[in-house]
Amino acid sequence: MNRQIFHKEGATLRIMLPREVDHHAAEEIRSAADHILETELIGQLIFDFSGTEFMDSSGIGMILGRYKRVRFMGGAVRLTGVSERVGRLLAMGGVYQMIGKEEE
Amino acid sequence: MREEHHMKLEMESRSENEGLARTVVAAFLLRMNPTVEEMNDVKTAVSEAVTNSIIHGYGNEVHKIILSADILEDCITVTVEDFGRGIPDIERAMEPMYTTCPALERSGMGFSFMEAFMDELHVTSSVGKGTVVRMKKRIGREKAGNGSYGSAD
Question: Which residues of A fall within a CB distance of 8 Å from B18?
Fold first, then answer.
């Protein structure tokens, strides 16, 4: 996995999601992100969708999985750079019921 | 004159091939001059079906998936076929949020997305023999809309 998609600033971890977030990409992000979450102190996780053109339900599972993990440790999760298309999928997958929608 | 086009691709059930399947169907669909939204709808549905075959059909083992697509006039039909475990209870599998693999963080939204983004969805499955997902979408309903692929502007 290209580590450049992970940017850590203090206790904030920003994940720059790839152009296409499918099952293949989601699995790679999941294992790399979990490694960071297990070894470093992360209080805020940001999923940055600004470079994402495609996502399917695998992306939703990956986001909710990380959300549960970060919340369990008392941290917060944010979603930024969400396009109309990705936003529609997040809404359909129930993500906004867990993670607040942000005005851009 | 009735316009008929057909394509068929045999590939292995590797997760890298999810992108291949989307790209191939997207390239095939281009000749129908779809909108960006129609293109995304079909790509999402294809991705869901192929991912299901990889994870649920074959349990991440590498076997054969057959992807085919047919254009008949203004409709595209995409078929994804595997020869894996099959689905014991299709009705249940198609319920939103239902998943047999919560540990794998499956959202259970695969069939819901296929249903939402295509006009028709047919699933036939036989336990121990495999699953066929056939989905159909009419292209060009929103032709007045903007942002179509292959348009001059």
Answer: 22-24
Q: Do B19 and A24 touch (CB under 8 A)?
A: yes
Plot region of A70 (φ>0 → left; ψ -120 to 50 → alpha; else → beta): alpha
Q: Please tell me the total count of domains within chain A.
A: 1
Q: Is residue A101 part of a domain?
A: no
**What's the structural domain count of chain B?**
1
pLDDT band at B152 (very low <50, low <70, confident <90, very high): very low
How high is the ipTM of this complex? Answer: 0.92
Task: Report pLDDT for B2.
Answer: 65
CB contact under 8 A, A30 and B55: no
Instruction: Categorize the per-residue pLDDT at B134 as very low, low, confident or very high, splitting at 50, 70 and 90.
Output: very high
Closest approach of chain B CAs to the CA of A10, in angstroms? 28
CB A57 within 8 A of CB B110: yes
Q: What angle do CA A81, B34, A61 make, to 5 degrees?
A: 40
